[in-house]
């Protein structure tokens, strides 16, 4: 059943029909199909808003059991110190455990996009990236990748990854995970975690959140070929590929 605020809104198809966009050479059949799709896109936007409101309305989460001591490039930093001037903290669990020779390409692709957004994100919330690899290893890769703004911390030696990313360090397994924490006075509580993993994936799909936090996939979903099923991002590309991209630009 639609939320009360949705029942007061014009129907999605009514809004879609208000569009003045027409593109050269389009057929009536294209315009009819595009308007039907536009109505679905409007419904999706409204559903995203409802989900975000439902997330914000969650009851208080569990109190954090430890003030975890992470290792940053300047030494140890407690979880409580990562909030800075904010009362919310987003922690991304990077799949770069010490048993990995190289980090997860999917995580890395998303973090590369977020690196450019970080100056804006940090205006509204604290945000850090943690992994179980030593901080020196994490910083070396950040330099290789050209990251400038991400705040990286090693969670090795803590139980953070077991507690909030369902990892088993002994097996070498690591998981990608967003967790959000909320500070209320001297109390820190877990607010939300991205629990959409393999067990919640639909058939034929990789695990993904909703909305999908990866700009890469959102862009490819706009294209005729979509995101596909046989391509993943890489940690690096041949120089010739990069040169062709620069030349095209």
What would your notes on this structure say?
- The chain is α/β, with parallel strands linked by helices and 249 residues long.
- Helices cover 35% and strands 15% of the residues.
- It contains 8 helices and 7 strands; from the N terminus they run αααβββαβαβαββαα.
- The strands form 2 sheets. It has a 5-stranded mixed sheet with strand order 5-4-3-6-7.
- 19% of the residues are buried.
What secondary-structure arrangement, pairings included, does this model have?
Blueprint: H1 4-7, H2 12-16, H3 28-56, E1 69-72, E2 75-78, E3 88-93, H4 105-121, E4 126-131, H5 135-145, E5 152-154, H6 160-165, E6 177-184, E7 187-193, H7 215-220, H8 239-248
Parallel strand pairs: 3-4, 4-5
Antiparallel strand pairs: 1-2, 3-6, 6-7
Question: Descriptors for this entry?
Answer:
8 helices; 249 residues; 15% strand; alpha/beta; 5-stranded mixed β-sheet; two-stranded antiparallel sheet
Describe the strand arrangement of the main beta sheet, using strand numbers: 5-4-3-6-7
Separate helix tally: 8
Name the helix and strand elements from N-terminus to C-terminus, one letter apiece.
Answer: HHHEEEHEHEHEEHH
Average predicted local confidence, pLDDT: 91
Summary of the model, kept short:
The protein has 249 residues and is an alpha/beta fold.
């Amino acid at each position: 059943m639609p939320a009360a605020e949705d029942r007061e809104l014009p129907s999605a198809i009514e809004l879609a029909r208000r569009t003045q966009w027409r593109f050269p050479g389009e057929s009536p059949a294209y315009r009819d199909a595009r308007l039907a799709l536009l109505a679905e896109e409007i419904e999706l936007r409204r559903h995203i808003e409802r989900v975000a409101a439902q997330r914000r309305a969650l009851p208080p989460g569990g109190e954090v059991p430890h003030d975890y001591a992470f290792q940053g490039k300047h030494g140890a930093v407690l979880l409580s110190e990562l909030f800075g001037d904010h009362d919310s903290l987003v922690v991304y669990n990077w799949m770069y455990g010490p048993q990995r020779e190289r980090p997860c390409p999917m995580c890395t692709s998303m973090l590369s996009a977020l690196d450019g957004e970080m100056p804006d994100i940090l205006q509204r919330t604290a945000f850090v990236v943690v992994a179980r690899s030593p901080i020196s290893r994490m910083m070396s890769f950040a330099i290789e990748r050209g990251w400038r703004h991400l705040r990286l911390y090693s969670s090795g030696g803590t139980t953070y990854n077991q507690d909030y990313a369902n990892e088993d360090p002994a097996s070498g397994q690591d998981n990608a995970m967003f967790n959000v924490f909320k500070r209320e006075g001297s109390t820190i509580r877990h607010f939300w975690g991205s629990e959409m993993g393999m067990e919640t994936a639909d058939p034929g799909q990789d695990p993904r959140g909703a909305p999908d936090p990866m700009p890469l996939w959102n862009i490819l979903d706009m294209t005729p070929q979509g995101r596909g099923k046989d391509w993943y991002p890489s940690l690096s590309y041949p120089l010739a590929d990069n040169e062709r991209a620069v030349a095209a630009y």
